[in-house]
Task: structure prediction
Amino acid sequence: MYLTPEEEKIFDGEYGEAKKIAIRLLYSLGELGGANGLIPIKSAHVSGVSYKNIGEGGLKFLRKISDRVSVPTSINPLGFDLTEDGPVEIDDNFRKKQLEVVKIYQDMGIMNSYTCTPYYFYNEPEFGDHLAWAESSAITYANSILGARTNRESGPSALSAAIIGKTPDHGMHRIENRYAEIIIKPHKLLDYSEMAALGLYTGYNGRGKIPLIIGQNRLKSFEIKAFAAAFGAASSVPMFHVDGVTPESNLVREKAETIEVENSDIENIMDKFSGEEPPELIAIGCPHLSVEELNYIAGLVRGKKKTGPDFFLFTNRRVKEEARDAVREIEDFGGKVFVDTCMVVSPLSNKYRKTATNSGKASFYLPLKEYGNQEVTFKSIMQLIKWVIA
Ligand code: F3S
Result:
């Protein structure tokens, strides 16, 4: 892979150890991916923030690579809500280590977004922008719904790209790699949680190819977001198209195979996560909620009082501020709206064992021991609300 004379100097360590580590990592990835060189990026989004996920090894890496970022860089959720603690109690060691991670990122000049939906207010790419984003749900959203261009970066590679301001020119940065090679055809119009289930189904059955979803042209962006998150969890494919909805849905290979999705295929996915016992916690907001979603949920609980399980919602600080009236109504009802963190990256098992959610991605991760060790129930939002309204 070609490096410019200036990039060579960085590679040789003339601009310090952190930049040297960063460009060498990008160089290796570029060589592996067949890139000719590095291209400038408009922004980066970094994952690997919760101390629960990165542990001591991740913290050591951060101490080594700490340097100022050279493009706008947002960051994923961490292990607790910095503004008011929660959603569960944490011990002193976890708090101390998490705060050190936060301080390192702040010193690097990274914005305090702590969200997987940075495209709501913090980091809003435009069509055709080259990015280096980590966080599978945000990557698939940026590529598919916004038409921006990012590979599926890891936390370290996104951070390296943020420091250098460039990324290797391969994969999703090239139009020839953005074509759908498989067509997914559900047999009915799907709602939010069914789209999330379709995301898991497509991830499991899509043969590792970019899919084109057909027959769903009335979808709203938050319903596609539910698909993006679940699809990104169940596969490593960084992009999909929705016919008539996403901006590059005309990019389809001529001989793309079609997979018919029966209604029972969707039901089976949801049934796989169907604890019938009442949960201890209802958790909504994976990915983090938009203003529109918070307003919708506020409408469902308006004037009522919560009974039964805890009712937690997750979003980012700017959305919470923007949707303050909805947040007040949800909290008057007895729910709680957290920022900075989420149901998967906070240490939920410190308090809960049984969680219900409308998220395909959370249903995928929460049962795993290292993520939540939860007995998960995956239901539509209306079914979840029935559990908390007398
Ligand atoms: Fe976001 Fe946490 Fe889900 S980072 S996509 S809410 S697992």
Observations:
- The longest helix spans residues 17-33.
- The two ends are 63 Å apart (CA to CA).
- The first strand starts at residue 38 and ends at 40.
- The chain has a mean pLDDT of 96.
